[in-house]
Design a protein that fits this description.
One of its GO terms (molecular function) is catalytic activity. This protein is of the alpha+beta class and 309 residues long. It contains eight helices and nine strands.
Length: 309
Protein backbone atom coordinates (compact mmCIF):
# COMPACT_ATOMS: atom_id res chain seq x y z
CA UNK A 1 0.00 0.00 0.00
CA UNK A 2 1.19 3.53 -0.70
CA UNK A 3 1.67 6.18 1.99
CA UNK A 4 -1.72 7.79 1.33
CA UNK A 5 -3.62 4.52 1.81
CA UNK A 6 -1.69 3.79 5.00
CA UNK A 7 -2.47 7.24 6.39
CA UNK A 8 -6.17 6.88 5.52
CA UNK A 9 -6.19 3.52 7.30
CA UNK A 10 -4.74 4.96 10.50
CA UNK A 11 -7.09 7.95 10.38
CA UNK A 12 -10.11 5.62 10.13
CA UNK A 13 -8.73 3.41 12.89
CA UNK A 14 -8.14 6.42 15.14
CA UNK A 15 -11.74 7.52 14.65
CA UNK A 16 -12.96 4.10 15.80
CA UNK A 17 -10.72 4.21 18.88
CA UNK A 18 -11.93 7.72 19.75
CA UNK A 19 -15.56 6.58 19.43
CA UNK A 20 -15.03 3.60 21.74
CA UNK A 21 -16.18 4.16 25.37
CA UNK A 22 -13.28 4.40 27.82
CA UNK A 23 -14.66 1.53 29.90
CA UNK A 24 -14.49 -0.88 26.95
CA UNK A 25 -11.48 -3.08 26.22
CA UNK A 26 -9.83 -2.57 22.84
CA UNK A 27 -8.24 -5.51 20.99
CA UNK A 28 -6.85 -4.88 17.49
CA UNK A 29 -5.10 -7.60 15.50
CA UNK A 30 -3.80 -7.96 11.98
CA UNK A 31 -0.88 -7.73 9.59
CA UNK A 32 0.69 -4.28 9.96
CA UNK A 33 3.82 -4.82 7.77
CA UNK A 34 5.60 -3.10 10.64
CA UNK A 35 8.76 -3.95 12.57
CA UNK A 36 8.90 -2.15 15.90
CA UNK A 37 12.52 -3.02 16.71
CA UNK A 38 14.17 -5.02 19.45
CA UNK A 39 14.48 -2.12 21.90
CA UNK A 40 11.60 -2.24 24.42
CA UNK A 41 9.36 0.79 24.88
CA UNK A 42 7.79 1.17 28.32
CA UNK A 43 4.08 0.41 28.29
CA UNK A 44 4.00 -0.45 24.57
CA UNK A 45 6.45 -3.25 23.70
CA UNK A 46 8.23 -5.97 25.61
CA UNK A 47 11.71 -7.46 25.32
CA UNK A 48 10.97 -10.06 22.67
CA UNK A 49 10.71 -8.31 19.30
CA UNK A 50 12.70 -9.39 16.26
CA UNK A 51 14.48 -7.24 13.68
CA UNK A 52 15.11 -3.52 13.30
CA UNK A 53 12.43 -0.87 13.35
CA UNK A 54 11.15 0.38 9.97
CA UNK A 55 9.00 3.34 8.93
CA UNK A 56 5.79 1.34 9.27
CA UNK A 57 6.93 0.40 12.77
CA UNK A 58 7.28 4.08 13.69
CA UNK A 59 3.70 4.70 12.54
CA UNK A 60 2.40 1.72 14.52
CA UNK A 61 4.19 2.84 17.69
CA UNK A 62 2.71 6.30 17.24
CA UNK A 63 -0.76 4.75 17.07
CA UNK A 64 -0.03 2.71 20.24
CA UNK A 65 0.11 6.00 22.17
CA UNK A 66 -3.66 5.39 22.57
CA UNK A 67 -2.79 3.38 25.72
CA UNK A 68 -2.23 0.21 23.69
CA UNK A 69 0.50 -2.39 24.04
CA UNK A 70 1.73 -5.10 21.66
CA UNK A 71 1.02 -8.46 23.28
CA UNK A 72 3.27 -10.74 21.21
CA UNK A 73 6.42 -8.82 22.17
CA UNK A 74 5.94 -9.47 25.90
CA UNK A 75 6.48 -13.24 26.13
CA UNK A 76 9.73 -15.13 25.68
CA UNK A 77 9.27 -17.77 22.99
CA UNK A 78 11.47 -19.70 20.55
CA UNK A 79 12.08 -17.64 17.41
CA UNK A 80 9.83 -19.90 15.37
CA UNK A 81 6.95 -18.79 17.61
CA UNK A 82 7.81 -15.11 17.21
CA UNK A 83 8.01 -14.98 13.41
CA UNK A 84 4.64 -14.16 11.86
CA UNK A 85 5.57 -14.15 8.15
CA UNK A 86 7.75 -16.39 5.98
CA UNK A 87 8.72 -15.72 2.36
CA UNK A 88 7.62 -18.31 -0.25
CA UNK A 89 11.16 -19.69 -0.55
CA UNK A 90 11.52 -19.86 3.23
CA UNK A 91 14.62 -17.67 3.20
CA UNK A 92 13.18 -14.61 4.95
CA UNK A 93 11.19 -14.46 8.17
CA UNK A 94 9.79 -11.40 9.93
CA UNK A 95 7.62 -10.40 12.85
CA UNK A 96 5.12 -8.03 11.23
CA UNK A 97 1.75 -9.18 12.62
CA UNK A 98 0.67 -7.97 16.04
CA UNK A 99 -2.17 -8.15 18.54
CA UNK A 100 -2.73 -4.82 20.30
CA UNK A 101 -4.65 -4.57 23.56
CA UNK A 102 -5.56 -1.91 26.11
CA UNK A 103 -2.72 -1.32 28.57
CA UNK A 104 -4.96 -1.81 31.60
CA UNK A 105 -5.40 -5.44 30.50
CA UNK A 106 -1.66 -6.10 30.26
CA UNK A 107 -1.48 -8.11 33.48
CA UNK A 108 -4.38 -10.30 32.29
CA UNK A 109 -2.68 -11.48 29.08
CA UNK A 110 -1.51 -15.03 29.77
CA UNK A 111 0.13 -15.91 26.45
CA UNK A 112 0.84 -14.58 22.95
CA UNK A 113 2.63 -16.59 20.25
CA UNK A 114 2.33 -18.00 16.73
CA UNK A 115 1.23 -21.48 15.71
CA UNK A 116 3.65 -22.37 12.88
CA UNK A 117 2.00 -25.70 12.10
CA UNK A 118 -1.52 -24.30 11.64
CA UNK A 119 -2.90 -24.62 8.11
CA UNK A 120 -4.46 -21.20 7.55
CA UNK A 121 -3.85 -20.91 3.79
CA UNK A 122 -1.49 -17.95 4.04
CA UNK A 123 2.20 -17.10 4.14
CA UNK A 124 1.44 -15.55 7.55
CA UNK A 125 1.49 -17.73 10.65
CA UNK A 126 -1.52 -18.06 12.95
CA UNK A 127 -1.03 -15.60 15.83
CA UNK A 128 -2.91 -16.12 19.10
CA UNK A 129 -3.23 -14.40 22.47
CA UNK A 130 -4.82 -15.88 25.57
CA UNK A 131 -6.56 -13.91 28.28
CA UNK A 132 -9.60 -14.51 30.52
CA UNK A 133 -12.83 -12.70 29.75
CA UNK A 134 -16.24 -12.64 31.37
CA UNK A 135 -19.10 -11.36 29.24
CA UNK A 136 -21.28 -8.81 30.95
CA UNK A 137 -25.01 -9.52 30.95
CA UNK A 138 -27.58 -6.83 30.44
CA UNK A 139 -29.34 -5.88 33.66
CA UNK A 140 -32.98 -6.87 33.79
CA UNK A 141 -35.56 -4.17 34.32
CA UNK A 142 -37.23 -6.11 37.12
CA UNK A 143 -35.89 -5.69 40.63
CA UNK A 144 -36.62 -8.95 42.48
CA UNK A 145 -34.16 -8.03 45.25
CA UNK A 146 -36.21 -4.94 46.13
CA UNK A 147 -39.39 -7.04 46.22
CA UNK A 148 -37.72 -9.48 48.61
CA UNK A 149 -36.57 -6.65 50.85
CA UNK A 150 -40.09 -5.19 50.95
CA UNK A 151 -41.54 -8.61 51.78
CA UNK A 152 -39.02 -9.16 54.57
CA UNK A 153 -39.72 -5.69 55.93
CA UNK A 154 -43.46 -6.41 55.97
CA UNK A 155 -43.00 -9.77 57.71
CA UNK A 156 -40.64 -8.27 60.28
CA UNK A 157 -43.20 -5.56 60.98
CA UNK A 158 -45.93 -8.14 61.54
CA UNK A 159 -43.68 -10.13 63.87
CA UNK A 160 -42.78 -7.00 65.82
CA UNK A 161 -46.47 -6.20 66.35
CA UNK A 162 -47.07 -9.71 67.68
CA UNK A 163 -44.07 -9.38 69.99
CA UNK A 164 -45.22 -6.00 71.30
CA UNK A 165 -48.77 -7.24 71.94
CA UNK A 166 -47.39 -10.25 73.80
CA UNK A 167 -45.09 -8.14 75.99
CA UNK A 168 -47.87 -5.66 76.81
CA UNK A 169 -50.35 -8.41 77.62
CA UNK A 170 -52.75 -7.41 74.84
CA UNK A 171 -54.08 -10.91 74.35
CA UNK A 172 -57.00 -9.91 72.14
CA UNK A 173 -54.80 -7.94 69.74
CA UNK A 174 -52.21 -10.72 69.82
CA UNK A 175 -54.69 -13.43 68.82
CA UNK A 176 -56.28 -11.15 66.23
CA UNK A 177 -52.93 -10.53 64.52
CA UNK A 178 -52.02 -14.24 64.58
CA UNK A 179 -55.41 -15.15 63.11
CA UNK A 180 -54.96 -12.50 60.42
CA UNK A 181 -51.60 -13.94 59.37
CA UNK A 182 -52.91 -17.52 59.36
CA UNK A 183 -55.78 -16.59 57.04
CA UNK A 184 -53.40 -15.15 54.43
CA UNK A 185 -51.40 -18.39 54.18
CA UNK A 186 -52.40 -20.99 51.60
CA UNK A 187 -50.72 -24.34 51.28
CA UNK A 188 -49.22 -25.25 47.91
CA UNK A 189 -51.32 -27.51 45.78
CA UNK A 190 -49.32 -29.84 43.54
CA UNK A 191 -52.27 -31.87 42.23
CA UNK A 192 -53.99 -31.72 38.85
CA UNK A 193 -57.22 -33.23 37.56
CA UNK A 194 -57.76 -36.05 35.07
CA UNK A 195 -60.24 -35.99 32.16
CA UNK A 196 -63.10 -36.84 34.51
CA UNK A 197 -62.22 -33.96 36.86
CA UNK A 198 -60.82 -36.14 39.63
CA UNK A 199 -57.75 -35.02 41.56
CA UNK A 200 -54.54 -36.95 40.85
CA UNK A 201 -52.22 -37.30 43.82
CA UNK A 202 -49.58 -39.81 42.70
CA UNK A 203 -46.49 -38.50 40.90
CA UNK A 204 -46.65 -41.06 38.06
CA UNK A 205 -50.35 -40.35 37.45
CA UNK A 206 -49.60 -36.62 37.26
CA UNK A 207 -46.76 -37.19 34.76
CA UNK A 208 -49.00 -39.42 32.64
CA UNK A 209 -51.76 -36.79 32.62
CA UNK A 210 -49.32 -34.08 31.54
CA UNK A 211 -48.20 -36.30 28.66
CA UNK A 212 -51.79 -36.89 27.55
CA UNK A 213 -52.51 -33.18 27.74
CA UNK A 214 -49.49 -32.11 25.66
CA UNK A 215 -50.11 -34.82 23.04
CA UNK A 216 -53.69 -33.59 22.59
CA UNK A 217 -52.57 -29.97 22.59
CA UNK A 218 -50.06 -30.35 19.76
CA UNK A 219 -51.78 -33.11 17.80
CA UNK A 220 -52.52 -32.16 14.19
CA UNK A 221 -54.45 -33.90 11.45
CA UNK A 222 -51.65 -35.08 9.16
CA UNK A 223 -51.83 -37.28 6.10
CA UNK A 224 -49.21 -39.97 5.71
CA UNK A 225 -47.35 -40.18 2.39
CA UNK A 226 -48.33 -43.86 2.19
CA UNK A 227 -52.01 -42.86 2.17
CA UNK A 228 -51.77 -40.66 -0.95
CA UNK A 229 -53.47 -41.50 -4.22
CA UNK A 230 -50.20 -42.44 -5.91
CA UNK A 231 -49.48 -39.05 -7.44
CA UNK A 232 -45.92 -37.72 -7.26
CA UNK A 233 -45.30 -35.38 -4.36
CA UNK A 234 -42.78 -32.62 -4.97
CA UNK A 235 -41.14 -30.96 -2.03
CA UNK A 236 -41.26 -27.20 -1.83
CA UNK A 237 -37.99 -25.30 -2.32
CA UNK A 238 -35.54 -25.59 0.56
CA UNK A 239 -34.86 -22.89 3.12
CA UNK A 240 -32.75 -19.82 2.35
CA UNK A 241 -30.01 -18.15 4.37
CA UNK A 242 -32.11 -14.99 4.46
CA UNK A 243 -34.91 -16.91 6.19
CA UNK A 244 -32.52 -18.24 8.84
CA UNK A 245 -31.11 -14.74 9.44
CA UNK A 246 -34.60 -13.27 9.76
CA UNK A 247 -35.58 -15.97 12.24
CA UNK A 248 -32.49 -15.30 14.38
CA UNK A 249 -33.19 -11.57 14.38
CA UNK A 250 -36.71 -12.21 15.69
CA UNK A 251 -35.49 -14.22 18.69
CA UNK A 252 -35.50 -12.16 21.90
CA UNK A 253 -32.44 -12.01 24.16
CA UNK A 254 -32.21 -13.14 27.79
CA UNK A 255 -34.62 -16.04 27.29
CA UNK A 256 -34.24 -19.51 28.78
CA UNK A 257 -32.38 -21.90 26.41
CA UNK A 258 -33.61 -25.33 25.40
CA UNK A 259 -32.46 -28.66 26.79
CA UNK A 260 -29.10 -28.24 25.01
CA UNK A 261 -28.52 -25.08 27.10
CA UNK A 262 -27.38 -23.09 24.04
CA UNK A 263 -28.69 -19.50 24.34
CA UNK A 264 -29.98 -17.64 21.29
CA UNK A 265 -27.37 -14.92 21.86
CA UNK A 266 -24.62 -17.40 20.90
CA UNK A 267 -26.09 -17.91 17.42
CA UNK A 268 -26.40 -14.15 16.98
CA UNK A 269 -22.76 -13.59 17.95
CA UNK A 270 -21.52 -16.28 15.54
CA UNK A 271 -23.32 -14.49 12.70
CA UNK A 272 -22.86 -16.04 9.25
CA UNK A 273 -21.10 -19.13 10.66
CA UNK A 274 -24.19 -19.97 12.72
CA UNK A 275 -26.47 -19.29 9.75
CA UNK A 276 -24.56 -21.78 7.57
CA UNK A 277 -24.65 -24.49 10.24
CA UNK A 278 -28.37 -24.02 10.92
CA UNK A 279 -29.13 -23.91 7.20
CA UNK A 280 -27.35 -27.23 6.63
CA UNK A 281 -29.29 -28.84 9.49
CA UNK A 282 -32.64 -27.49 8.27
CA UNK A 283 -31.99 -28.56 4.67
CA UNK A 284 -31.11 -32.08 5.83
CA UNK A 285 -34.37 -32.27 7.79
CA UNK A 286 -36.27 -30.89 4.78
CA UNK A 287 -34.86 -33.54 2.44
CA UNK A 288 -35.14 -36.56 4.75
CA UNK A 289 -38.40 -35.46 6.40
CA UNK A 290 -36.99 -36.75 9.69
CA UNK A 291 -36.62 -34.70 12.87
CA UNK A 292 -33.45 -35.13 14.93
CA UNK A 293 -34.20 -37.33 17.91
CA UNK A 294 -33.24 -34.74 20.51
CA UNK A 295 -35.51 -32.14 18.85
CA UNK A 296 -38.48 -34.29 19.84
CA UNK A 297 -37.69 -33.99 23.53
CA UNK A 298 -39.15 -31.09 25.49
CA UNK A 299 -39.15 -30.05 29.12
CA UNK A 300 -42.40 -28.62 30.46
CA UNK A 301 -42.50 -26.49 33.58
CA UNK A 302 -46.11 -26.15 34.79
CA UNK A 303 -46.85 -22.78 36.38
CA UNK A 304 -50.08 -22.90 38.42
CA UNK A 305 -52.57 -20.08 38.07
CA UNK A 306 -53.38 -17.85 41.00
CA UNK A 307 -56.06 -19.47 43.14
CA UNK A 308 -59.23 -17.57 43.92
CA UNK A 309 -60.79 -17.64 47.38
Amino acid sequence: ADDEEIEDFYVSLQQLVDATPKKDTIVIMGGWNAKVGSKPITGITGNFELGDRNEAGDRLLEFCQNNLFITNTCFQQPKRRLYTWTSPNGQYKNQIDYILCSQRWRSSIQLAKTRPGADCGSDHELLIAKFPMKLKTTCKTARPARARRDKEKHINGQCQQIKDNNQKGKTRDLLKKIDEIKRTFHAKNGTIKDKQGRDLMEKEDIKKRWREYTEELYKKDTQSIDETDGSTIELEPGMLESEIKRALECIANNKAPGINEIPAELFKILGDDAVKILLAICQQIWKTQQWPKYWKRSIYIPIPKKRKY
